[in-house]
Design brief:
Layout: H1 2-24, E1 35-40, E2 51-55, E3 59-64, E4 73-74, E5 95-99, E6 104-109, E7 117-123
Parallel strand pairs: 1-3, 2-7
Antiparallel strand pairs: 3-5, 4-6, 6-7
Bound molecules: copper (II) ion.
């Protein structure tokens, strides 16, 4: 009986502490996908910026500000995965996005206008389980 009473008292004493701990613990922040922008300026036949450094899990959005369509594709035979990127031509005023999950180098070009080239360097996000 004494033991039961002791347990009861301990429960009464510790429960509010545990509850308080739960309340004061900082809420786990919701994962926010970081989005990087690459612009295709009007009449310039280039990507801006041409070189981009991001972390795994982040997204790149290509925004076409030109008056012609420009597709995005990995350069065949180059980089970490030469099939990583492939889009239909992005229409003027439209955009196209891709999320990079694996660290590496991702050179790309516009397969209509070969002079348009860029590269995305993806490094492992620190402090995250892979
Ligand atoms: Cu193009």
């Amino acid at each position: 009986m004494k033991v039961v009473l002791m347990l009861g008292i301990m429960w009464i004493l510790t429960t509010p502490l545990l509850m308080a701990q739960e309340i004061t613990q900082p809420a786990t922040p919701e994962p926010v996908t970081k989005v990087h922008e690459v612009h295709i300026p009007k009449g310039a036949d280039k990507f801006e910026p041409p070189v981009l450094k991001i972390k795994t899990g982040e997204t790149v959005t290509w925004i076409n500000e030109d008056d012609r369509g420009h597709p995005i594709a990995s350069i065949p035979g180059q980089g970490t995965n030469d099939k990583e990127l492939f889009s239909a031509p992005i229409a003027p005023g439209k955009s196209w996005s891709h999320t990079f999950k694996k660290a590496g180098e991702y050179p790309y070009f516009c397969y209509i206008h070969y002079v348009m080239m860029g590269v995305v360097f993806v490094e492992d996000a620190q402090g995250q389980a892979q």
